[in-house]
Amino acid sequence: MDQRIKEAVDLFTDVMVYGTEKVIKSIDHPLWNEYSPEQMQMLKLIRKEERVTSSRLAVLQSVHKSAISSRIKKLLQKELIRIADSDDKRTKMLEITDAGREVLKQSEKALTEYIEKLMSAHIEDEEIDQFLIIFRKLKKILKMDGV
Amino acid sequence: MDQRIKEAVDLFTDVMVYGTEKVIKSIDHPLWNEYSPEQMQMLKLIRKEERVTSSRLAVLQSVHKSAISSRIKKLLQKELIRIADSDDKRTKMLEITDAGREVLKQSEKALTEYIEKLMSAHIEDEEIDQFLIIFRKLKKILKMDGV
DNA sequence: TTTATTAGTTGAGGGGGTGGACTATTTTGG
DNA sequence: CCAAAATAGTCCACCCCCTCAACTAATAAA
């Protein structure tokens, strides 16, 4: 048991913490050069939520509201999102624009092609199912707040 | 097939790209506040390599040498590493100090405890083995340069 | 020995983040 | 009903990370 946990920790840090950046760099798509991963994640969240406020995004991305504020400014400038009307004049309701949807679509296409290439080259068919099972589980676990 | 790849892409981005930061934040150990993940990774690499130059670290961490340069300055200042002698006077041979080893030890302890808690709470015994298998595979794949 | 090449530093410029101060707009509650 | 408290966002200083290009110093090559 002890030994397995130790290996799990090593694998976790290698694969998750340090491997992720390597993948992002490998994709090397012009979009990933123009928009940061954080901006992309935010755009994806805005598409998913349809209409969302700055403070909700801060909760979803687990960062300070000031970080969100500057991010919004950048996405607005690039016209990937727009401000919708809101009852509460303190808040800014955000929604994705058509340009934003297109950017997400392109980025997802690139990522899909990359992972597909990766998998078909190195992972057997039955391993893909295992991958899915483990990652579904991981997602579920990581979503939990209190651990 | 298509459907599984799509799910794999979603899971990949959710778990790897965005889940990782959540985990790092969750650990909430004073060490992770004092030293950045990049500094920790570098320290780990220096311990592993025993004696290593700046340019080799740049290759290992896949960043520009100037990024490494400032990182080294910080680790030196914190006395977690030291400069060893070198034949080539252009290079700086680096090695870890006792203080550096201690920091790594503490950080690994915290991470181990965290992951152990996470796993024992949410993952069955036989799933741990599956986790190990998939992550070993992922590590191997991600280590490949040309994809 | 003169000319490349290599190692590392530095500085500008642009990402990411926090926390606190500040404005504007609700809400609350005496 | 109106003053006090809470909420939503922005802005600022300050930190980390990164790249790229200019620069110095030292070694390798011609």
Summarize the entry for a quick read.
The structure is a homodimer of 147-residue chains. The first copy, chain A, is built from seven helices and two strands. With 147 residues, chain A is mainly alpha-helical.
Textual characterization of the structure:
With 147 residues, chain A is mainly alpha-helical. Chain A has one domain (2-143): Arc Repressor Mutant, subunit A, CATH 1.10.10. The first copy, chain A, is 74% helix and 5% strand. The first copy, chain A, contains 7 helices and 2 strands, in the order αααααββαα. The first copy, chain A, has helices at 2-27, 30-34, 37-49, 54-61, 65-77, 98-122, 125-143, and strands spanning 81-84, 93-96. Chain A has a two-stranded antiparallel ribbon with strand order 1-2. In chain A, α3 packs across α5 (65-77) and α4 crosses α5 (65-77). Chain A starts with a helix and ends with a helix. Chains A and B meet through α1, α6 and α7 of A and α1, α6 and α7 of B.
Outline the secondary-structure elements.
Two copies of one chain form a homodimer.
Chain A: H1 2-27, H2 30-34, H3 37-49, H4 54-61, H5 65-77, E1 81-84, E2 93-96, H6 98-122, H7 125-143
Antiparallel strand pairs in A: 1-2
The first copy, chain A, binds a DNA duplex (30 and 30 nucleotides) through residues 36, 38-39, 53-55, 63-74, 88-92.
List its salient traits:
homodimer, 147 residues, mainly alpha, two-stranded antiparallel sheet, 2 strands, DNA-binding
The CATH architecture of chain A can be named as Orthogonal Bundle
| Total tally of structural domains of chain A | 1
Largest sheet of chain A: 2 strands, antiparallel
Helical content of chain A stands at: over 70%
Q: Indicate the radius of gyration of chain A in whole angstroms.
A: 18 Å
Total helical segments of chain A: 7
Low-confidence residue ranges of chain A:
none
**How much strand of chain A?**
5-15%
Shape, per Cα inertia axes of chain A: globular
Mean pLDDT of chain A: 87
> How are the strands ordered across the major sheet of chain A?
1-2
Oligomerization = homodimer
| CATH homology group of chain A | Winged helix-like DNA-binding domain superfamily/Winged helix DNA-binding domain
Order of helix and strand elements from N to C terminus of chain A: HHHHHEEHH
- What CATH calls the topology of chain A is Arc Repressor Mutant, subunit A
Assign the structural class of chain A, choosing from mainly alpha, mainly beta, alpha/beta, alpha+beta, or little secondary structure: mainly alpha
